[in-house]
Every structure is written in structure tokens, then in C-alpha cells.
Amino acid sequence: QQQVKQSPQSLIVQKGGISIINCAYENTAFDYFPWYQQFPGKGPALLIAIRPDVSEKKEGRFTISFNKSAKQFSLHIMDSQPGDSATYFCAPQAGTALIFGKGTTLSVSS
Amino acid sequence: DAGVIQSPRHEVTEMGQEVTLRCKPISGHNSLFWYRQTMMRGLELLIYFNNNVPIDDSGMPEDRFSAKMPNASFSTLKIQPSEPRDSAVYFCASTRRGSGPIYFGEGSWLTVV
Q1: What is chain B's Cα-based Rg?
Q2: Rounded distance, CA A110 to CA B65, Å?
Q3: Cβ-contact B111, B11 below 8 angstroms
Q4: CA nearest B75: which of B95, B96, B48?
Q5: Alpha carbons A44 and B95: distance in angstroms, whole number
Q6: Cβ separation of A32 and B91 shorter than 8 Å?
Q7: Would you put residue B21 in left (φ > 0), alpha (ψ -120 to 50) or beta?
């Protein structure tokens, strides 16, 4: 059973553009909705996360939008930069049980 | 503060040999995870521990894989005997209990030839 569906699988964006990655989940018990960023040769690292009591959270150029009724949340990267080129994972979580999406490889061209 | 520390960073071994990967979680973290990452299957949870007790090992591929956490500051993942299909990056991660960020190590890159 696929509990987390992340899209798109890959994304190419021009420098300065907006990158949008989506995550759909099934388990209504999830209560923490993070995005992780992974650079080649490194482990995933928390980028930004949201709790279900708010619909949006912004940190610099990164924004999470959360739609509880649709069971979806998305990552928006404004003014995308070549340094944002990485793989991004959603990983909705309930306690210490979390499910990683398949990942989205983002390439920002200069 | 030191992050999650894994060793070795890189390991090349011959098929049939025993491989032991090591992990030191962040001090004060109660939960520890072992993940495997490959291009084909992405990030797979192998096993996780809460307070040194294995809670879910349903992701462990087969009996060749075993994991232990003898104390709060150390865990091992052992593959015996190793096979070429075990070649992957193995990540250890830790967190405090409850929903919150988990912190990954830099990974152990395993190649079995």
C-alpha cells in the first residue's frame, strides 16, 4: 500500500523560477509534515516542516502549503538558485513512524 | 554539537564477507533508525529502535541482516554473508521521541563485489 505519493519525480527550473513539489498521503494520523533536502554524497537534512494546525509556513525562499482536507502538502521554492539543486523528500510522520516519498530531483539551471 | 556519526564512510568487500556498519546517535535522542538508499528503491527503513529496543524490523530484507543497539550511544547493522545486491548507502538517523525532525548521518557507502 503506497501511503505517500510525491510528484514530480524530477524537475528542471530556470534560475529565479518557482519550484513546486507535491506530496499526497493517506494516513490521517500523521501530525508532522517535513521536507528533507539531500545533496549528493550527504544524508537527508530537514529543510522545513509544518504542523497540521497551520496551512502555510514560510522560511526565507521556502514555503510549505498544507491542505488537511485534501491530505496534501507542497513545497514551494521561490527564486530558485543553482544551489537548490538537490533531491527533496516529503516524509509525513506520526510519532517516530514516518514514510518517505520517493524523492524529487530538482535541477536549477543558470 | 556532534551529529549522527557513522563508520565506515566507505566499504568495499567481497561477496560472502561479513560487513558491520556502526552508528553513534546524537546524545539525548531516544530513537534510532537504519535506512538503506538505492537508486531503484529510494530510501527504505530497515529497522528502528526506541530506547535501545527494536520496535519495527519489518524492513530488514532477510536473515542475513541484523541490527543491535547495546546502549543509547551505539548501534550496529551487520550483513552476513554480504551479496552484491546489498550494495547501497546505509544511513543511520536519530531523533527524540515523538513527531519531530530526524537527523541523518553522512551514510556508509557499501560496495559488495
Answers
A1: 13
A2: 44
A3: yes
A4: B48
A5: 14
A6: no
A7: beta
Which element (helix H / strand E) includes A34? strand A33-38
Cell of B88: 547501497
What 3 state SS string does B14-45 have? CCCCCEEEEEECCCCCCEEEEEEEECCCEEEE
Answer for the pair B37, B44: CB distance below 8 angstroms, yes or no: yes
Distance CA B49, CA A27 (A): 22
Q: Report the distance separating Cα B23 and Cα A53, nearest Å.
A: 35
In angstroms, the CA B48 to CA A15 distance is: 39
- Per run of 10 residues, the mean pLDDT along chain A (length 110 residues) is 86 97 94 96 96 95 96 98 97 88 95
- Do B74 and B23 meet the contact criterion of CB atoms below 8 Å apart? yes
pLDDT confidence of residue B18: 97
Under a CB-based contact definition with an 8 Å cutoff, are residues A40 and A95 in contact?
no
CA distance B97 to chain A (A): 6
Q: What is the pLDDT of residues B6-24, one digit of tens each?
A: 999 999 999 999 999 999 9
Say if residues B34 and B92 touch (Cβ distance below 8 Å): yes
Chain B residues touching residue A31 (CB < 8 angstroms): 99
Whether B23 and B6 have beta carbons less than 8 Å apart is answered as yes
Chain B residues touching chain A at CB-CB below 8 Å: 4, 31, 42-43, 45, 48, 50, 55-56, 91, 93, 95, 97-107
pLDDT at B17: 97
